[in-house]
């Protein structure tokens, strides 16, 4: 049996997809009132309106019920993951599949690393790649990366989670998979800024491409394999998130570029830009786009100054 921890848009979408054919799935939400509403309406009206919850999907606020499952997909926002796992008992000895995308501000770790640190006896894996919650919940064809350092165990998880419309590619590069998902959110902010500020689609294409170079540079120093960044978890998600207004990170970038307030909610690239700017500086590598996004978000620069600074950088080889 599988359980999903966190009933946001993505957790709900995964739970719906995995239970659609009648398989029993438990979805855990922390708020009992939200759970009561979901049970009553058979819909998560707050986060994924218009999608019916299949009959075999059980929603609960009791973590012990979710802990009945050997495999738990954890889909809470990145900055909430560490706190969630501070009560490790329900998660011990389980297979924990991290679905969050980001870098933890406090520790600089990715989601699988946070799991490994907080619940050392669990088997950690990562599910990531190009996927909007509504697409997965609607049963549209989606291809994602399932990364697990233990290949035989990863193969088992891959087959457990895949559905006819949710195709999973296996990787053993956990570091690369979790970084691709985290860093593409920062680049989606940059791409949104380019369009929001009226800099044009050519500028956005440059931001995506040079952003990808930054992603690979950072991933390299964190021990990731380059081919992982070229796959679904890196390039695939970068393309989706930098080009679609369905993305919250891209929409936040659009607002920033237009000089409007950045919308609230789960915009993972904001904290990740901050964490990665610090980590890159410590490691002595240049990540100019990431640093620009962070500085703009913190009000440390203005858009004209940021663009001027990027264009005035020394001319280098590609
Ligand atoms: N929405 C998508 O399309 C999508 C796709 C792929 C990956 N993700 C990733 O999934 C993660 C969650 O995103 P989302 O879209 O589901 O967010 P969301 O904003 O829709 O919902 C977040 C949910 O997390 C819950 N939550 C917050 N803190 C919590 C805590 N400490 N304990 C338990 N629950 C907590 C909130 O109550 C809320 O239900 C993010 O890292 C995101 O990048 C999202
Ligand atoms: O809405 P976003 O920007 O968090 O993006 C959602 C997914 O990560 C896209 O793969």
TrEMBL record:
NAD(+) binds at residues 6-11, 133, 248. Residues 173-307 form the Glycerol-3-phosphate dehydrogenase NAD-dependent C-terminal domain. Signal peptide: none annotated. It is an enzyme of class 1 (oxidoreductase). Keywords: Cytoplasm, Lipid biosynthesis, Lipid metabolism, NAD, NADP, Nucleotide-binding, Oxidoreductase, Phospholipid biosynthesis, Phospholipid metabolism. Sn-glycerol 3-phosphate binds at residues 101, 129, 131, 184, 237, 247-249. Residues 2-151 form the Glycerol-3-phosphate dehydrogenase NAD-dependent N-terminal domain. Substrate binds at residues 101, 248-249. Pathway: Membrane lipid metabolism; glycerophospholipid metabolism. Pfam families: NAD_Gly3P_dh_C, NAD_Gly3P_dh_N. Catalyzes the reduction of the glycolytic intermediate dihydroxyacetone phosphate (DHAP) to sn-glycerol 3-phosphate (G3P), the key precursor for phospholipid synthesis. PANTHER family: GLYCEROL-3-PHOSPHATE DEHYDROGENASE (PTHR11728), GLYCEROL-3-PHOSPHATE DEHYDROGENASE [NAD(+)] 2, CHLOROPLASTIC (PTHR11728:SF1). This is Glycerol-3-phosphate dehydrogenase [NAD(P)+].
């Amino acid at each position: 049996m599988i359980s999903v921890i966190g009933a946001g848009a993505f957790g709900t979408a995964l739970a719906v997809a995995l239970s659609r054919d009648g398989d029993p799935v438990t979805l855990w939400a922390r708020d009992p009132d939200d759970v009561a509403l979901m049970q009553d309406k058979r819909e998560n009206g707050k986060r994924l309106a218009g999608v019916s919850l299949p009959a075999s999907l059980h929603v609960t606020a009791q973590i012990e019920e979710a802990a009945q499952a050997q495999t738990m997909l954890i889909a809470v926002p990145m900055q909430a993951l560490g706190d969630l796992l501070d009560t490790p008992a329900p998660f011990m000895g389980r297979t924990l599949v991290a679905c969050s995308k980001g870098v933890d501000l406090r520790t600089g770790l990715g989601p699988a690393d946070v799991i490994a640190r907080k619940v050392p006896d669990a088997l950690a894996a990562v599910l990531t790649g190009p996927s909007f919650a509504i697409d997965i919940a609607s049963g549209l064809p989606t291809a994602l990366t399932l990364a697990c350092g233990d290949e035989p165990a990863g193969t088992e998880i891959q087959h457990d989670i895949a559905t006819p419309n949710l195709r999973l590619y296996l990787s053993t590069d956990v570091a690369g998979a979790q970084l691709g998902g985290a860093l593409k959110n920062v680049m989606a902010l940059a791409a949104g800024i380019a369009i929001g500020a009226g800099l044009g689609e050519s500028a956005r294409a440059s931001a995506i491409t040079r952003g990808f170079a930054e992603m690979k540079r950072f991933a390299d120093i964190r021990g990731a394999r380059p081919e992982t960044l070229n796959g679904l978890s890196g390039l695939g998600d970068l393309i989706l998130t930098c080009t679609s207004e369905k993305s919250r990170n891209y929409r936040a970038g659009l607002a920033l570029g237009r000089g409007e307030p950045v919308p609230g909610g789960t915009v993972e690239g904001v904290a990740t830009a901050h964490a990665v700017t610090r980590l890159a500086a410590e490691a002595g590598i240049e990540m100019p786009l990431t640093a620009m996004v962070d500085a703009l978000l913190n009000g440390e620069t203005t858009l004209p100054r940021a663009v001027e600074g990027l264009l005035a950088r020394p001319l280098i080889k590609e």
